[in-house]
Amino acid sequence: MTFEHKKVSYNDLLRATNSFSLENRIGSGTFGVVYKADIRFGRTMIAVKVLNLDQSGAFRSFVSECEALRNVRHRNLVKILSVCSSIDHQGNAFKALIFEFMPNGSMETWLHPNACTNLPFRDLTLTERMNAAIDIAMALEYLHDVPIVHCDLKPSNVLLDDNMTAHVGDFGLARFLFGSDTVPAQLTRSTGGIKGTIGYIPPEYGMGSQASTQGDVYSYGILLLEMFTGIRPTDERFKNGLSLHRHVEMAFPEQVMDIIDTKMFPLDLGCENTFAPENCLNCLVSVIRCGLQCSKELSKERIAMVDVVKELISARSKLLRGEGN
């Protein structure tokens, strides 16, 4: 695997992160830790994902991410700038991925802020959520055309740049597919089973199905419902057969305003100042309908990402231009 990018050494990263200090740590995942680094690629600040090679599957994750990202280019994908494969000062193997730094953090920190978040506290507006939802959908539409399946879409893997544009990242579990959606897809290699994150994993994966674009659609649907209700799919209220999908489905469409995250609106109004309440309602009904269509239990009943993009752009038009249902 080769990258036509600036080379970065282990010592460069050590200095740029102040010896991978806690103060520069901006995130962590199953296979590694992400640090902000004081290195510039032109005008671009960077983030460094250091792989924990003692973790089972970490090296495979590194290879998968390199393979997935080296041949894809899209404005809504996190851009890989370089890689570092070296030896640390203890003589251990060291592998890291260098990405463009996203100053506004992850969707996770905006939807579910906590005391550890360094970002200015405010809530995402309806417009910001709409734009981000479309950004993510367009990234998946592009990936599925390759075809690549992300396999781990969730709020913490969606990053926001300084303009609040959303970028899909973390391709450590991504799969290349042979064939198309009309033919049973085969993985390019054995991966020891499908993994993902509880709450976002499509039900068919738990029954042994292989990775598919429809699986990503399910994860996207859950993410979309979470973005507009403010409720995690793993919320403690969801037990005894109740799920986020079912919770929303029971309220749709008549009581849709009862289940959405009202923090996206000013306290004194039912919608943003610039939009009529009726336009907001029309938009939200369309968005929630799309989320429900994406997260259907049966994969064959889910819509494709190309149609999701069209639906959401239409929903945003209802908000901005006041078009009816």
TrEMBL record:
Keywords: ATP-binding, Cell membrane, Glycoprotein, Kinase, Leucine-rich repeat, Membrane, Nucleotide-binding, Phosphoprotein, Receptor, Repeat, Serine/threonine-protein kinase, Signal, Transferase, Transmembrane, Transmembrane helix. Gene3D superfamilies: Phosphorylase Kinase, domain 1, Transferase(Phosphotransferase) domain 1. Its EC number is 2.7.11.1. Pfam families: PK_Tyr_Ser-Thr (PF07714). It comes from the Eukaryota. GO terms for molecular function: ATP binding; protein serine/threonine kinase activity. PANTHER family: LEUCINE-RICH REPEAT RECEPTOR PROTEIN KINASE EMS1, PROTEIN KINASE DOMAIN-CONTAINING PROTEIN. This is Receptor kinase-like protein Xa21. It comes from Rhynchospora pubera.
